Amino acid sequence: MRFWAYLVAGFAVVALVVVLTGGDLVGATAGWFHGAFGTTYNLTQTLVYATPLVLVALGVSVALRASVVSVGGEGQMIAGAIAATVVLLSPAGSSPLALPLGALAGAAGGAIWALLPGLALVRWGVSEILTTLLCNYLAAQLLAYLLRTSLRDKVGAATPQSASLPDAALLPMPFQIILALVLAAAAVWWHRSRSALLLDVFASRRWLAERLGVGAGRAMLATMLVSGAAAGLAGWVQLAGVDGRLDLGISGGIGFSGLIVAVLGRSRPGPILVAAVVFAALTTGANGIQFATGIPAAIGTVTQAVLLGAVALAVTASRRSGRSW
Amino acid sequence: MTVLELCSASRRFPRVQALDRVDLAVRPGEVHALLGENGAGKSTAIRILAGLDHPDPGEVRLDGRAVRFASRTDALRHGIGLVPQTESLVGELTLAENLALAEPHRVVRRRAASRRLREAATTVGVAVDPDVRTRDLGRGQRQLAELVLALAQDARVLLLDEPTAALGPYETRDMFTRLRALAAAGVAVLFITHRLAEVRAVADTVTVLAHGRVAWSGAGSDVDDATLIRTMVGDLPDTPTREPRTAIGAPVLRLAAVSADCGDPIHDLSLDVHAGEVVGVLGVAGNGQRALAEVAAGRVRPAGGTRTETGSVAYVPETRLDGLLPGRAVRWSAVVSRLREPRFARRGVVDRGAVTRFATDLLARHDVRPPDPGLPVLTLSGGNQQKLLVGRELDNGPAAAVLHGPTQGLDVRSAKEILSEIARAAAGGTGVLLVSADPGEVREVADRVVVLSGGRVVGEFPAADFDDALVRRLTAGGDE
């Protein structure tokens, strides 16, 4: 209840900003809706942008159940995309198994990128927030290096990018959305499972969980690997479903946005789907606002920020009133 | 004559009438004890006096005039100091810094704060160093430090919410000496307690609250214990009479020369608990109780020595919420140690129906009230939270059980019920290690008593030979 009140308040703040700066609120709303959902093309753009957000957010939600806060989605996406590129540019990329192989490679790449912070957390108690964040920079540098050296497209110009993926490796359009829906359904099941409940116990009363055989190391490492794999999968989706080749902009901030979507959806699969579409629509619809009213498209980013602030407030308020979960 | 009073004060919360037309007056130079069961309205009364809450309807009078404090700070400006039940000091800061924090100045005046604290400490005769981080003080010292802190802020009325709940008998006595000294200096003292002995030891005036009403009020010398208990709780359940047990079995939990450090270390400590036996551990708080309990329960691995268990070991930690899942409904706390059992999940998914049925049954068997598995844990009273925790831990006949201060902060009735649970578990063959600050309850339920001092066992005797003087000498670290 309170949560919705904060969200509505968030939208109200944005509306107020629009009105106070002399904007046309009705026109802006209509423009936004048209830009995000009005045509088949616009709708598709929105859903395509929402898909990797869903994947990253689902992974983050798994880790959050064990109180593990992974902000490494960005780096894990890059690692997943690199791994997928390597596999898909090999002869395997032209085989009929190219899609599952690409998905596997992406997930494995993301998981490997989560392994290092995971081990540091389990073995030495190094804050995962710090290490996952730092690993993002490592991944970005590795990507830049590879795109200028071994993965560089030999045919193309000087732009640091890989060769195009073979057609067999490209992800046809509705498929990635189905993948996101299937994984969301699996997440619904998992969040109601006993293992998820045990992670809740682990997150709030570690000794009770250990008595039930939930080892600290395993719980934290497993959830980090899962969230890494999900982000790596998102990297593959972006690679094979949108870009068609590896370039420097492969992650495009989706790793961080996915974290915001997880928070907006309060770690629950259903709300995450909605939050991802709304979040994506705020980006894709922003141009529509600019076309319709002349309000700069940055209003989309402003709205995303205000919503994040509203949700952060809602979470803090519910925690202070003692109703954490 | 009266400095601070409640006049026909009522306070209603959703579903409970916490206070119902209560009159209560504190006078300078007097120690006033506020008695009552958990949930009788004692804390509400004190919160209102301290400016944390307001009567509705009713009024608070200061020096005979009706007042309405805006906050605790406002009340403090009028000379009313509160020592709350949960510690309110910032552990990372020194006492002087804590005082500076409480003051309205923008600049922290550490030196001045420190000087005023020393003056206040001298008034009550407490040796508290204002320049040590408060978390490095012992628990008893911290309680006294809160007292000194209130005094340094020129309190002429002191409100103490269960100041002795966490203290052992000898620290309690020390606290009382200070309270008497304060009264002699003209301060009005009002304190909440569950323990009748404390009323006898220190109080001039007694007010008993029951169900939000004043059930009895007058001079302590005018009333006997039986009457006080009756006005407080009605008739008590019978205490299980304890025959010295003959059917004590093989060891179920053995500690051999264990050492551990949980901020409160134990050294080379050896102790066996046998099946069907209750071993009571006594001592001044902070002498290794915590380390002993945590190691015995298997939650902390000992740094040296060995621990052997023969079966499951139940554990009721010192802080009861530490054993519960406070943010969730009662059912999850009830089932949490048995979540692995197949009946609580179907194809991997948690079976809420089965969990609820189990919890309902557990609440009924251990008399947790209200017996509603859907309520949030935090809506239960302390006594019922504890019954839930103890009930869950002792429910399926564990081989051994470690209970750390299981009746701390509970009213007489709830405490008795917990002790009965312990006695029942022992009769069923569980070996119980009862770590307690209360010699009375150890004497009541234990078969054997172990005295802890400086992290070592300094004495051990059958409960039948219980001797208060001996225990006191041993806990004080004297010779055996």
**Assembly state:** heterodimer
Average pLDDT rating of chain A: 90
- Domains of chain B, number: 2
What is the top-level CATH class of the largest domain in chain B?
Alpha Beta
Helix content of chain B: 25-40%
Please give the order of strands in the largest beta sheet of chain B. 6-7-8-3-9-10
- Named CATH architecture of the largest domain in chain B: 3-Layer(aba) Sandwich
Question: Which structural traits does this protein have?
Answer:
heterodimer; A: 325 residues; mainly alpha; ABC transporter involved in vitamin B12 uptake, BtuC; globular; B: 480 residues; alpha/beta; Rossmann fold; 2 domains; 6-stranded mixed beta sheet; 15 helices; cell membrane (chain A); ABC_transp_permease (chain A); transmembrane helix (chain A); sugar transport (chain A)
Report on the structure:
The complex is a heterodimer of chains A (325) and B (480). Chain A is mainly alpha-helical. Chain A has one domain: ABC transporter involved in vitamin B12 uptake, BtuC (Orthogonal Bundle), CATH 1.10.3470. In chain A, 75% of the residues lie in helices and 0% in strands. In chain A, α4 runs antiparallel to α5 and α5 crosses α6 (128-148). The two termini of chain A are 14 Å apart. The mean pLDDT of chain A is 90. Chain B is α/β, with parallel strands linked by helices and 480 residues long. Chain B has two domains: 4-233, P-loop containing nucleotide triphosphate hydrolases (Rossmann fold, 3-Layer(aba) Sandwich), CATH 3.40.50.300; 250-476, 3-Layer(aba) Sandwich (Rossmann fold). Chain B has helices spanning 42-49, 72-77, 95-102, 110-124, 139-152, 169-184, 196-202, 225-233, 289-296, 330-335, 352-365, 382-394, 412-427, 439-445, 468-475, and strands spanning 4-13, 16-26, 31-36, 59-62, 65-67, 80-83, 157-160, 188-193, 205-210, 213-219, 251-260, 266-274, 278-282, 304-309, 313-316, 345-346, 349-350, 400-404, 431-435, 448-453, 456-462. In chain B, α6 links the parallel β7 and β8. The A-B interface holds A 189, 192-195, 197-198, 200-201, 204-205, 207-208, 210-213, 322-325 and B 299, 315, 322-328, 332, 336-337, 339-340, 344-345, 348-350, 376, 378.
